[in-house]
Amino acid sequence: MGASLSLVPVLDYFARREFLAAGLRPNAATLPYPDGGAGATCTVHYWAPPGEPKLPPLLLVHGFGPRATWQWRCQVGPLSRHFHLVVPDLLGFGGSTYPSETAPPPSEATQASTLAALLDSLPGMEGKRVAAAGTSYGGFVTYWLAREAGAGRVGPVVIASSDLLKTAADDRGFLKRAGEGWGGVDEILLPAEPAAMRKLIELASYRPPPRVMMPDFMLRDFIQKLFTDNRERLVHLLKGITVGTDRFQVTPISQDVLIIWGDHDQLFPLEKGFAVQRYTPTISALTLCNSHRPSLRAHTDWLVLYKRCCHLKVSERER
Q1: Mutual orientation of helices 137-149 and 108-121 as an angle, nearest 10°?
Q2: Among 60, 121, 167, 217, which is most buried by a count of CB atoms within 10 Å?
């Protein structure tokens, strides 16, 4: 019985329902693929309200692994009442595709360039200034987008649990925190066995569910549908990540920036958040949450943070 039970479609249904209830609708745009040569295209799946923006635009960029609906399901409801949300699946995730058989995997710069093209293709959005928020890998992309597009196009910026200064030493520290028996970071980030999936959840969560709530048959189902069926593509995407190399140089940006970081984050420890804050003098503030998954933080907290970052009035009820 356990082998035939799958929670993935159920969770996907409820996540999509949150997006639909927030007035967002699924769409797709075919755009040039920046790294694919002449004539190469990619498809970006995204959620947005129909029509031109009537509220300030806000771009939400998910992390490595989950599709956009899973990452932002707790936030789109309250945020949609104050912002015109654009919530894409990054290339290679969810419904977004690129020519993986003939072109190199997208780097953070390529992802950012594609998002800029997507924004320009939407009704009433060409050249319009857009606030942007990214979490984890999505924060790398958001930083690159803000730097390349400039303050006239993108800003303010929210970067959540994104170690822009990541190095090989950080990977070694990650494996040390994970404990003995792991051959590499990708063994945990792309789990193939329940033990690796359980370890990933433990490292990404402040208070992970007890083991009895994560039986092996359930974790195998998640692994099969989220990782095994997509492993070749995810491995290809990992090869495109440039943070921690000479191709990803962190320089100050002129936008107002809010950093959100988990004080119990075991993927990117809190001291890295303070390092990013010190390294980028235009950072306006660093706010703490519990874990590596700040997008699951109480939605009212996120609403207040976004409104303050975007210089919008915060009501007494929201404080």
Answers
A1: 60
A2: 60
Predicted TM-score (pTM) above 0.85? yes
Q: What is the C-alpha separation between 6 and 218, in angstroms, rounded?
A: 7
Handedness of CA 100, 103, 104, 109 (dihedral sign): negative
Query: Cα separation of 12 and 99, whole Å?
Result: 26
The answer to whether 45 touches 96, Cβ cutoff 8 Å, is yes
DSSP annotation of 208: P
Residue 263: which of 295, 286, 296 has the closest Cα? 286
Q: Among 61, 245, 44, which residue's Cα sits nearest to residue 139?
A: 61
Edge-to-edge strand order for the sheet containing 57-61? Answer: 25-32, 41-48, 84-88, 57-61, 130-135, 154-160, 257-262, 283-289
Query: Residue holding tokens 């890295």?
Result: 272
- pLDDT tens digits, residue range 52-90? 999 999 999 999 977 899 999 988 998 999 999 999 999
257 SS3 class: strand
